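Morning run. Coffee first, then this:
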Amino acid sequence: MGCSSCGSDVGTPRGCKNNGTCSSGGCNKLDVYDWLANISLPAGQKAYDIVEVRFKNSRKGFFRNADHITLSVGDVVVVETVPGYDVGVVSVVGELARIQVKKKAPGFKPMETRKITAIATQKEIDSWIKARSLEQDAMNKSRVMALKLGLQMKISDVEYQADMSKALFYYTAEGRIDFRQLIKDMADQFKIRIEMRQIGSRQESSRLGGIGSCGRELCCSTWLTDFRSVSTSAARYQQLSLNPQKLAGQCGKLKCCLNYELDMYLDAIKSFPKAETKLKTESGEAIHIKTDVFKRLMWFAIQGENGLIALTPEQVKKIQELNSAGTIPKDLKAFTYVVEKEVEIGYENVVGQDSISRFANKNKNRNKNKNWSKPKFEPKK
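And here it is:
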């Protein structure tokens, strides 16, 4: 993710043989594996003429290959825009593009979409790279202009068109912003057409990228394409502490990964009694404290006593049936589930090579056994 068409601006990564055009397949954002590449079309069926093209960061679009140019994933192409033209990288072709269109653009009209004019020449690629080099400076200057005008907005990214006729400024703001004067100032400064586009905090994180708390690259900047709403109930179902600092991602919102395992937790919790369950005993009333979904254990504490008692969902239901029948057990010790201690696996010498100086000791013993004295030569008589 260090090529010139990405947002990191750290140069071409090692091993990239495409001169910074991000067509090696190893540094792209939102890569798509073409699992239909080796499947031939039925006889008489024409190839799908809609192609998915990727631009800076995660922005993608569908274009029509009206001239039936032979294209493959990674080709740098020139596409129609209003005004002028733009340059992008082909990300999906063939029948997989048909599936992507049905998935991402249900109301897509092929005959009304813009066309791919040709494969980019070296002159057009040079103009594209030059436009990318102007983006960082334009973003810094535009931020200074916004501060002078007192606008409560943050300009997070700038995307120049390949022909340098238009620049798209992405910004985030909590409310409505009147940036008419800002557009006039930027048009006078950069001498190009200015377009402003407001994005959310999650879209901003997906464009800028970063490393998450898990140690891996952000899901939104690598493969996640839709941003579904995440609620605090997802954390409650998974028995997570409601700590905003741990549950929030770099965008300031709840982490998208809280939804990944939520369905599994919801299915598992169906067999558990409710968390508001209270068990009556002669020693007192037992209140639910926590639940371990994976071990299928519910922990209860009796009021006025120290310590937690582990019970399985089946045992809790059995005690509830006894309480509903009017039977109150003496205590919960008879129903206590014995938690087995996990065996800690320490270091085990499997091959008998636990000493660094094992070979030195052998050589030392070997040297003792050897007779290193010089041979005695008796003079001939």
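The CA atoms of residues 184 and 205 lie 28 Å apart. Good start to the day.
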